[in-house]
Structure formats: C-alpha cells, structure tokens
Design a protein that fits this description.
Length: about 280
C-alpha cells in the first residue's frame, strides 16, 4: 500500500479526532474523562490487533519500552499543555507553536538520518511555513500575553516536535524490536495510567455514558492516526511525511470548520490556503 495512502488515512483519523473534540466542547462532558477512556481504548485495540511475536529477551526490548513510556507521558501532558496555552495565550499562538514544531522531526530526518530531499521539496517545506503563518487566526489580544508565560508556547513547540521526532527514531531504529501495535499499546496504556492517577487524585472516577462513547470513538481514531503515520514513515522521508500531514490537517480542518462549524476565513487565510495547496502539489510531485 502506498505511503501516500497511509498519510491520507492518518490525516483522516486526525480530522475525525478534531471533529469529535469540537463536539465535546458543546456537550456536558469532562475532557479528562474522555481522554482517559480514549487512551484505554486505543491501548486495548492496539494490543489485541497485534499479530507479531518476539523471542527477544526482555533486556533487549527494555530500551524500546522506555521510549514508549516517555511518549505516553508526553502524549497526555502535551494535550493538557495545549489546553492551558489556549486559555492563557489564545488559539492562534497555540496552533502556531504546534504546527511549526514540525521543524524538529524534519531536522532529525535530514541531519540525523541523512534523508535526501530535492530542491523543490525544500521549497515546498518553506511554503508550508508561510501557509501556516497566513492561516493562523490571530488578533491583538492573543499576541499581548505577558512575557512571564512565554515558556508555555515554547514548551508546546518542544513537546510536539519531540513526540514526532521520537516516533521517527522508533521507526528507524526500534520497529524491528517491537511491532507498531505493541509499541502503540504501551504508549497509550501509559497515557491511560497517567490520566487515571489524575482522576483518582481528584476523586472523579465516575464516568457518564456520553463520555464513554466519545472516548471510544476518539480512542480508535487516535490509535490509527499514529499507526498510519508510522507506516507512512516506512516508505517516505520524515520531512515529507510530517510536512504533508501537518499542512493537510490544517487545510482540510479549515474546510471542515467552514462546512460544519460555519467558520469564516479572512483574506489572509484564503491566501494561506492557496499557498498550502501549492506546497502540497510540490511535495507529492
């Protein structure tokens, strides 16, 4: 199956997640409850769909599991950090920090693993960043946050970039040790345990039926969004995969926002979409 198809499937799952999370904002549900159920479901489905087995001694698998433990903690911490950033500094800067973080896995792919890119691919990646800058919803209030909380978007930038970079490292150096299904099961189960501990600490272990339904749906989409991303990384350069997935998420997410949530675009954002489409054409040709 083509790596480009895996990118399309990964982006489709990501858009489903975004749509469902948007729907939870209009429902009387606890986001922490939904996230905790989501990670449990993702871990369970991933574990039981695994068809690979390994005879490697545990001591050889341990480094890969350590990476999974690190990513599991980072997954759920990153989501809460994103929520805090939206509250403290606004949507525009928060989205910018998340999307521009793709520079970190690009650097790892090109300069650590020596992946080759043609000149037009480098041009396309440059246009991707231009498109992000044009499409971000910004206003004066969002850009006037106090300097003492400047570390929040910086952390969000680093967290997102590190997650993608570590996934690339797993794909290149550890996927022969532990299958994608088992690796993701360990990541999501770790994130589930973190969420569960927080709920126990807060004394909020009672779940509603609606939270369970949202959690199950998001959990399946969450699993396969990352799973298909890992499969795409097997067939294409990390710089190409991360650029395409990010820009497609933004462009298609924008169209979904217009069609379903009745969002409005500024002239600057329309130019951003045009730039994004140009970048996509250059990246896939």
């Amino acid at each position: 199956m083509s790596a480009y198809l895996f990118i399309a499937l990964s982006v489709s799952c990501s858009l489903i997640i975004a749509h469902l999370l948007k729907a939870t904002e209009r429902s009387n549900v606890s986001l922490l409850h939904v996230l905790t159920i989501n990670y449990f479901v993702a871990a369970t489905v991933s574990f039981f769909t695994n068809q690979s087995s390994y005879a490697d001694p545990f001591i050889e698998v341990l480094p890969t599991l350590s990476i999974g433990l690190f990513l599991g903690i980072l997954f759920i911490a990153n989501f809460f950090l994103y929520s805090i950033c939206i509250q403290k500094i606004g949507m525009g800067v928060s989205i910018a920090a998340m999307r521009l973080s793709l520079i970190i896995p690009i650097i790892v792919s090109v300069f650590v693993f020596g992946e080759f890119l043609t000149l037009n691919k480098y041009l396309a990646i440059g246009i991707v960043f231009l498109a992000f800058a044009l499409m971000l919803p910004r206003n004066n209030e969002e850009l006037s946050f106090p300097g003492k909380i400047l570390f929040l978007p910086v952390l969000l930038f680093l967290f997102n970039g590190v997650v993608d970079a570590v996934l690339k490292i797993y794909e290149r150096q550890h996927s022969h040790v532990l299958s994608e299904e088992l690796f993701l099961a360990f990541i999501f189960f770790t994130a589930f345990l973190v969420g569960l501990f927080v709920l126990i600490y807060k004394g909020e272990l009672k779940f509603t039926k609606r939270e369970f339904v949202y959690g199950v749906l998001i959990g399946v989409a969450n699993l396969y969004s990352t799973f298909f991303l890992l499969l795409a990384l097997k067939g294409l350069s990390g710089a190409l995969v991360f650029s395409l997935t990010n820009i497609l998420n933004v462009v298609l997410g924008t169209f979904i926002g217009i069609l379903i949530w009745k969002d409005q675009l500024t002239l600057k954002q329309k130019f951003g979409i045009g730039s994004a489409i140009l970048a996509i054409i250059l990246l896939v040709t």
